[in-house]
Design a protein that fits this description.
The complex is a heterodimer.
Chain A (H helix, E strand, L loop, with lengths): L3 H12 L5 H12 L1 H12 L2 H15 L13 H24 L3 H8 L2 H8 L3 H19 L21 H18 L1
Chain B lengths: L3 H12 L5 H40 L9 H21 L3 H8 L2 H8 L3 H13 L9 H18 L1
Helix pairs in contact in B: 1-2, 2-3, 2-6, 2-7, 3-4, 3-7, 6-7
Classes of the chains: A mainly alpha, B mainly alpha.
Chain lengths: 182, 155
């Protein structure tokens, strides 16, 4: 597993060069943005069940056959598995976001995920839709552009607008999940 | 590769839980020290060749080691200093452990390398070179800590 620092080290080692000012500039930014990054991660961890439940509910609303007998979210046991998977994906996205590098998400969550779903008969198109909704919801909570109440209490209060860059980074991790399921 | 962040994430993943407030605190703590580390890494990168040559010249000028080995010694000291540069960036001893120290004893034994010369060179860098001229006090402390770690591993 890598983070933003060790990712720089691994790529420098491939060239056999020491890490100089150029590469360090990016890492300094990562360090300087630590509070925003933690806030953005908190936005996920404080709203996990809400994000996952909304995404699965949205997926079902768009395709009501899923909860009917014969549908993929019937009976409730399978619906519950769906919610659980949503939370697992959010957990790995939160790790990747904290580390500033997608390797933990790729190695421990996405590697073999599509094959598992195909073997279990989970329709990946629906799973992708749920991940898309989670992405939209997460970005909205991080940037505090969600309608209604403020969804999380960060270390820096009112940091929503400042979390924009990191929300974009989080969105890229959800895109990786979608890509892996396509 | 071990660093403050990956350690926290591994532990959270092993327990299947989201990163907690105390995880954030420990990540935050490592970032607070990061400024000195990154400065040390930057300055070391710019002085890598200088430090290597100064140290190796000093060790080889008294004639107690075979001059034929000098080039190899320069190469290895340079390599180890580069790994120290990596360690300063990650904030842990991961790169030194994984790429410099594990398996090192075996290689040294087979190739009959003069480790005493290496140790002398690193001690020279630690004690004789005025590191303070190029980096701040805190950065120097971080750098010297890793030099000590390497010297102990070689000894």
């Amino acid at each position: 597993m890598l983070d933003a620092f060790s990712r720089t080290v691994v790529s420098a080692d491939a060239k056999g060069a020491a890490i100089g000012s150029e590469e360090l500039a990016d890492l300094r930014k990562y360090v300087a943005d630590a509070n925003k990054r933690i806030d953005a991660t908190l936005a996920i961890t404080q709203n996990v069940s809400c994000i996952a439940a909304d995404a699965v509910a949205g997926m079902v609303c768009e395709n009501t056959g899923l909860t009917q007998p014969g549908g993929h979210c019937y009976p409730t046991r399978r619906m519950a598995a769906c919610l659980r998977d949503g939370e697992i994906i959010l957990r790995y996205v939160s790790y990747a976001l904290l580390a500033g590098d997608p390797s933990v998400l790729e190695d421990r969550c996405l590697n073999g995920l599509k094959e598992t779903y195909l073997a279990l008969g989970v329709p990946t198109s629906n799973a992708i839709r749920a991940v898309e909704i989670m992405k939209i919801a997460t970005v909205a909570i991080m940037t505090e552009t969600n309608t209604g109440r403020k969804m999380f209490k960060g270390i820096n209060s009112g940091s929503g607008a400042q979390c924009k860059d990191i929300a974009a980074e989080a969105a890229s991790y959800f895109d990786l999940v979608i890509e892996a399921l396509c | 590769m071990k660093s403050a962040v990956t350690t926290v994430v591994s532990a959270a993943d092993a327990a299947g839980r989201f990163p907690s407030m105390s995880d954030f605190e420990s990540v935050k703590g490592s970032f607070d020290r990061a400024k000195a580390r990154l400065e040390a890494a930057e300055k070391l990168a710019s002085c890598l060749d200088k430090f290597t040559n100064l140290a190796v010249d000093a060790v080889y000028q008294n004639g107690s080691y075979e001059q034929a080995n000098k080039d190899k010694c320069v190469r290895d000291i340079h390599h180890y200093l580069r790994l120290i540069n990596y360690c300063l960036v990650t904030g842990g001893t991961g790169p030194l452990d994984e790429w410099g120290i594990s398996g090192m004893r075996e290689i040294i034994r087979i190739q009959l390398l003069p480790t005493a010369a290496y140790i002398e060179a690193f001690i020279y860098i630690r004690d004789e070179i005025k590191i303070n001229d190029v980096m701040s006090q805190q950065a120097e402390t971080e750098f010297k800590g890793l030099l000590d770690y390497l010297i102990n591993a070689l000894a």
